[in-house]
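Predicting holo structure, 2-acetamido-2-deoxy-beta-D-glucopyranose bound.
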Amino acid sequence: MKRNVPLYFMALLAVAVMGYSSRRSAMDLDATPRITVTYNDLISARRFNSHAQNYTTLLLEDEKGILYVGARGAIFSLNSSNIADSSHRTVEWEVSPEMQAMCLKKGKNNKTECYNHVKLLQRLNATHLYACGTYAFHPLCTYIDTNNFTLPSHFEEGKEKCPYDPAHGYTGLIVDGSLYTATRYEFRSLPDIRRNRYQRILKTEESPLHWLNDADFVASVLVRESVRSPVGDDDKIYYFFTERAGEETTSIFDKAQAPRVARVARVCKNDVGGKKILQRKWTSFTKARLACYIPYYEVLKDVYSLDSGDWRSTVFYAIFTLSAQWRSMEVSAVCRYNISEVRAAFLGPYMEYQDSSRKWSQYTGDVPVPRPGSCITNRARKSGYNSSQDLPNNVLDFIKLHPLMYEEVKPVDGAPLLVKKNAIYTQVAVDRVRGLDGQVYNVLFLGTGNGWIHKAVVIRSMVHIIEEIQAFKNLQPVENLVISKQQRSLYVGAQSGVLQLPLSTCKRYLSCFDCILARDPYCGWDGESCRELTEMLDRSLLIQDMLHGSVGCGNDSAQALAAQKNRTVLRGDDVLLPCEQASNLAQATWLVNGTQVLAEDREGHFRLGVDGLLVTDTQMEYSGEYRCYAEENGLRTLVAAYTLSVLREQLVPQPLPTLSYPSGHAPSHAYEDMRFIYIAVITMLGGLCLVLTVVLLYVSCLQKRKGKYSLGVPKASSVELQTVSSNCMGKGSQEEEEGEDLGLFPDGCLQIIPGEATTLASPSKEAPPAPPPPPPPLPMEFTNGIPTLPNMLRKMNGNSYMLLRQNEEPCTSPLYNSFTEELSKILEKRKHTQLVEKLDESSV
Ligand SMILES: *[C@@H]1O[C@H](CO)[C@@H](O)[C@H](O)[C@H]1NC(C)=O
Ligand SMILES: *[C@@H]1O[C@H](CO)[C@@H](O)[C@H](O)[C@H]1NC(C)=O
Ligand SMILES: *[C@@H]1O[C@H](CO)[C@@H](O)[C@H](O)[C@H]1NC(C)=O
Ligand SMILES: *[C@@H]1O[C@H](CO)[C@@H](O)[C@H](O)[C@H]1NC(C)=O
Ligand SMILES: *[C@@H]1O[C@H](CO)[C@@H](O)[C@H](O)[C@H]1NC(C)=O
Ligand SMILES: *[C@@H]1O[C@H](CO)[C@@H](O)[C@H](O)[C@H]1NC(C)=O
Ligand SMILES: *[C@@H]1O[C@H](CO)[C@@H](O)[C@H](O)[C@H]1NC(C)=O
Ligand SMILES: *[C@@H]1O[C@H](CO)[C@@H](O)[C@H](O)[C@H]1NC(C)=O
Ligand SMILES: *[C@@H]1O[C@H](CO)[C@@H](O)[C@H](O)[C@H]1NC(C)=O
Ligand SMILES: *[C@@H]1O[C@H](CO)[C@@H](O)[C@H](O)[C@H]1NC(C)=O
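Done. Tokens:
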């Protein structure tokens, strides 16, 4: 039986995936970010970091223009308009050496645990912040005066407010002076939702039923449901977490293997506990299941609450990843929940645990009045129940045994908004933006486990990923995301620092088509450039098309961008006509003399690649007009245009007059100059060989980093070799570049057509010079190919090519072979990813 459990999981997963993709197009399963912005291409990014690490806690006070940051051993106050300016203030809050020694004695990790990780940072009153830190497994809290921003000498015990272990899921809020926290506080204690300070201290019940089972908290949200409530309802705090499912008792699950489910729980703000029963315990705690994509096999990562001013419009955005048994698979899902549906679940039937059958099932008996788990409302007050202490015993007894609701909360439209392969989302923040069409669009900022941000917009019930942004150079999870409306900034907290990014960078879009294809609700085309809507007083002339991303630009406004270039080659040579597509969603179309080059035409002399058209073994009749268009969303724009001229044979060497000289050189020195030039050319060639060798060494070192790829090297264009000659030194090839003089440019000894390989991988100092490891085996189960495959690599699927030729010349370096190996390995991997992609579409 046990043996079959994984099979069952697999089947279930397959069914879930299938069910999902039958409702949606297969494309949705791997929504592709339209553009990829690597670390070096970031615009107006500002960074803050100091000696500290783990910048995990962010508190934005937008009106004051301050971003407070809780890190390991310090709290910072930053100017939110520019976090990198020098005006920041710091409260050093390190662990005392004695406490650190005690922590080490307990056997804790001296690299991470025996420090003071600031986990809570909340505004307490007009003058003070309340802060709690793990303080080397001895949590402490304190009040920080925000005027002089210094560490006070007095501290409070933090053991019921802050976890001991910095790695435990934790959420904390201060609401009207009371501190609401949820976590597993001590090492061996049960997880708990607690209220401290001001109001009466309250906890969750642990007997006879545990209200929480091994819960891992991710977020808590205050919803002010008392505001203009016709029934005199109370404000509520909603908790989001993943826990062991008690209710699922079908035979396939052992108790120990009980699956984890996502939950939403809530308590009332004015709950004060019961008098005799549930004394100092919540009388309003109830919880319900949150379903998103694959119930039971998903882990909740983060929740963001969004409303338009009225709590009734509240929408929760939740992100999920697959649970641990699917570690080899990277899939994330985004679901959206409507507050009215969450409330409906809490108003529905309860679940009950039957001791006899040891099963949870729907409770069908009578429900006492006032309704257990509801807040004190006008109706209860009318019946004389002014506070939870007045509640009758039968209500309290009922609550003790029925914390779980029968109905699950389903996402809006019954399906995830987005399912994304090859990404682990860790954080989400959402902004509301009014587009030019007057509609409000929700823009999601999704942080990933490897330091990228996906910016996506919800259009009806579909998600379009506008861009993926590499926020950090080194792989590290995004740990916090905060949006400032005031500064129009996104703050990203992570291990190595805090990053401030503009919510939009419209100027990145260079043409009208680019601007509308982006479907960025912050951006519009003003006739000359792509502009931020907020910067424009007069929006009447702006162009934006959120719904379709295609309408509004004239017919030929994009054509002007592409300059006509001339290319001249010798007959028999190969030539690459580059054509870089800015968008990952665009498809390249080539017209030669007005006739389209078909991708399937593989036998011919044209090879279509993602970054250009390769013409091999050129013949005289290949001369002509070559035009590269980008096709996206039904729009076709000219990206590059070339006039190719094929010469019958090499021109008689006549380098002298063609190499440009500063005028005034005496012609009598020509011969010596020529010799000098030949020597120079030879030296240059030697240099080129050397440079190539270094590049090869570098690239091959990079490739030795097993498994993971990361980005960080400039784009392929920097190693563009446009003409590929079949010979090395012997035969040069002519190159005519934008009207420059015809020059003799013998190619280097190595001809590489730039493929994607050159854009892979970031420098790695620890790469060993050992022989390259064998390629990683293709995982057996449903895999997504290589884990954390950057999207740039995705371009290699399909039409890309990689061409490498060895020369007769002896100048090949010993590294050359390993480079070839690396390249063929990449090709091999590419095949695999291609295979898997296809598998996903057809068989899954
Ligand atoms: C803090 O950052 C370090 C790396 O800088 C990391 O190894 C550690 O896990 C982080 N700790 C927490 C609690 O996030
Ligand atoms: C933040 O910086 C801006 C400009 O650099 C300045 O005008 C503003 O006063 C600063 N805010 C604070 C809170 O220091
Ligand atoms: C942690 O402990 C190891 C060995 O016990 C020691 O080498 C290292 O220096 C310690 N690190 C810190 C930061 O104390
Ligand atoms: C804020 O709280 C702190 C700590 O309890 C207290 O000392 C301070 O007086 C309070 N400030 C105001 C304005 O109430
Ligand atoms: C900070 O201000 C508080 C009162 O506002 C005062 O009690 C405390 O001594 C001040 N700390 C320093 C270091 O000036
Ligand atoms: C929530 O759902 C209800 C019913 O499905 C719908 O009427 C309401 O407009 C939704 N609210 C929001 C904010 O989406
Ligand atoms: C509830 O409050 C009302 C008015 O505040 C009071 O008249 C009534 O006696 C209270 N009832 C109880 C049971 O305390
Ligand atoms: C675009 O071209 C089509 C035909 O090619 C023409 O009918 C239309 O008027 C043109 N639109 C603009 C804005 O130039
Ligand atoms: C393109 O047209 C020119 C002149 O009409 C012709 O010589 C050439 O062969 C054509 N090229 C191709 C690839 O058809
Ligand atoms: C390309 O060559 C043609 C003549 O063959 C010339 O008229 C044109 O100006 C050249 N274009 C460029 C951009 O140099």
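The pocket of 2-acetamido-2-deoxy-beta-D-glucopyranose (ligand 1) is lined by residues 53-54, 112, 117, 166-167, 495 (CB under 6 Å).
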